[in-house]
Design a protein that fits this description.
single chain, about 210 residues, alpha+beta, 9-stranded mixed sheet, 4-stranded antiparallel sheet, about 15% helix
Length: about 210
């Protein structure tokens, strides 16, 4: 092979490598969209820099790391940065610490969720509904007075007639409206979902929902 072709192949190889690296980098992060951890007893952690680091809501987690949950009642939800409609959940276990590579977690079938299409008039498919886009701590929801209370998860849809109970202080819940706007609610608080549509203040002294 003469020098000319060596140069050509070197340039093509460098360009291809750059494209592969860029694509891998774009797909190698996941967002922490839901987190419940009894911090007094344990943490949800990821391996970084050779040591375990506590996970926080909103963190970006590398595809190439490992996650650990040390308390059976804890759980975490993560969503690919390039596909917010897919979410993966990892729960603690009574048998002991749960340790899993993120790449292995992604081999499992994700839960598929939907969100409103952003528009001034609002998405008709989500009329009178709110969608959970992020949460920290344990949030409970009752669809109606006769329904059971359930733990909220990423992508859950809340109807106007439902009730939300954010149990602890420092817990937060982000809800998306039909038009794509998002409100952040801070606990502890219990409220009817309808209040968020009627503009009523959730807090006696301070409205911090926006």
């Amino acid at each position: 092979m003469n020098k000319f072709w060596k140069v050509v192949w070197s340039v093509l190889f460098a360009a291809a490598s750059s494209m592969i690296f860029t694509t891998s980098y774009a797909l190698s992060y996941l967002n922490v969209v839901g987190l419940y951890s009894e911090t007094g007893a344990g943490h949800v952690e990821v391996m970084k820099g050779g040591k375990w680091n506590i996970v926080s809501i909103g963190d970006k987690i590398s595809l190439y790391t490992t996650i650990r949950i040390t308390v059976d009642r804890d759980w975490v939800e993560i969503s690919p940065d390039d596909n917010p409609n897919a979410v993966y959940e990892l729960d603690g276990s009574k048998k002991g610490p749960v340790i899993k590579k993120i790449s292995d977690l992604l081999k499992q079938k994700p839960k598929i969720v939907s969100f409103p299409k952003k528009s001034v008039k609002g998405d008709k498919n989500f009329s009178g509904k709110l969608v959970v886009v992020q949460y920290l701590g344990r949030q409970r929801y009752q669809a109606n007075d006769d329904a059971d209370w359930v733990d909220l998860r990423y992508g859950d849809i809340l109807d106007k007639g439902g009730t939300v109970n954010i149990i602890a202080i420092n817990s937060t819940l982000a809800l998306e409206y039909p038009n794509g706007d998002v409100s952040n609610i801070y606990g502890p608080i219990r409220f009817k979902v309808e209040k968020l549509f009627t503009g009523q203040k959730l807090y006696k002294y301070l409205n911090v929902t926006e």
